[in-house]
Amino acid sequence: MSIGISDGSYGAFPTSSYLPFIIRPGLSFLKISFEGVYLQSNDHENGKEHLLCLLGNRTLPISKPFIDDWNDHYLEYSLLQDDQILLVLRYPQSFNLTSRAVRGEMRSLNKEGSLAYFDNVHISSQLNVYSMYQFSSGLKSRSCDLHPYEQDMTVYGSKSFKSSFDFCHSLRGVSRRPFDILQNHKDRHDASSKLGPFQLGKESDSSWSNGNYRLVFQDLICDEEINSNNLQSARVSAVLRAFPASMDALTEQARTGLSGMTLSVEGRWDSSTKKLCMMGCVGVVDSESEVCNSLISLNFPNVFSIEQRSLMKGSISSISNETNMFFLPLFFDAQWSPMDLKSLMSLKDIPYYNYSKVDLAAAMKKKNQPSKSSSLSKKPFFKLNGYPNKLDIHTAAIRHESSNNNNTKVYMEMEVLSHGASYSYHHEETTEILNISLQLTLYDANFDEIADPYYPCFLEGVYDPLAGNMYLIGCRKVSHGLDCLVEVKVQYPSELSKDPSVVITITSQRSQQDKLHFKPFTLKTLLNPN
User: Fold this and answer.
1) Which helix (H) or strand (E) element contains residue 281?
2) Which InterPro entries match (predicted)?
């Protein structure tokens, strides 16, 4: 057995290390060798279990700090051999919704007060996808259409998967990323409702108000089925783990212990309802009726827009009348990324994009429209070859605020998510104007996403390839939804221009007295993005 504490700076935990122990800044590691007996238990309290009773041996480093002339602090070790370690592990013989917890205890057989003595260590883990999962044939059937709030989730429809295999493939893909838990602003007073069925325990609830929580899927199992009527369906099992957004998602996804912050779930998707409906049980479960009081609904919208960026939407609601119920549903979602959309474009499986801001963007274009003679004079400098394929920007830029003459170097990503053509007629001349949507994200010098209230910013509007200009409406996330009163103008250089920079101007349309108002600023690329 390997036991250790790491701050994450060393990457993966060195479980295969040949060293008996490691002690260095940011990492402590101890290996213990065990041997013992295995037996099967039919305990009436814990049910049928696999039982391991083991005796361990370790080499324990005992540190002796001292100060010398060359080092302020130096650690010297003496080694202590300890063969008085007892480990008891209990594994369930069946692996299902209510039986998946691995429980154990490690304790010292040395006398209390000796150098080798330690307090009892409690171990919590779970069986995983390498065990044979048994889906519950008698699982209570629950409908995901009982609540009117479901209409909020399905206003953009549900994606129709061609087969249960396609559904499982999509679910596995989206489960690799963390989900954002969305605060339910209908109830700002009942703290117990903020995390739905999850139980914070000793954790402070201030994390919610300071930075939200997230969810990760663990040990996802998705089995495809086809019934006698050729109805496509899939049985699904997983564990949902909640954690503060400030924590590393990969670290949380690697945790195996069951607690009040985990929800074991099981359910079914079928092609008729187009959604996944599951029952959930909090923490370590001994019976379905004990803590299986949650209904989980997952939906894949088939339309996205500037205000609907969810690749998947989910909700957790209470189906219990007990005192431990939560009153309002907990919503969570996974957002589209440009990489997702580009991948779907290549597969020709991209959802329908609903343009809703192009009229506002067109009005913005008209307001900034140059004179006819000026527009015609630019014609030789721009190529009109249909949709241009070099509008994405991945390069360094200077962010400039005119109000304080402050320049900041950033790394900028602006990626096209979708495009479509419309036609505008001016003075008997036909000009192709492209409807377009994009996502803008800024990073600092260390390529960390800037904790800036303006980003990521979702953009939608029109592109005029004759003038090389985009006129866009931007939506940015704020504490209570989206701020879509943002205007963005993008100016691309001509091929003959001596300055190859792209200039982006971002302006708030709110009054200066509005809390969401921000001062206008520009972004100017340092290199030719093409």
Assistant:
1) strand 275-282
2) DUF2921_N
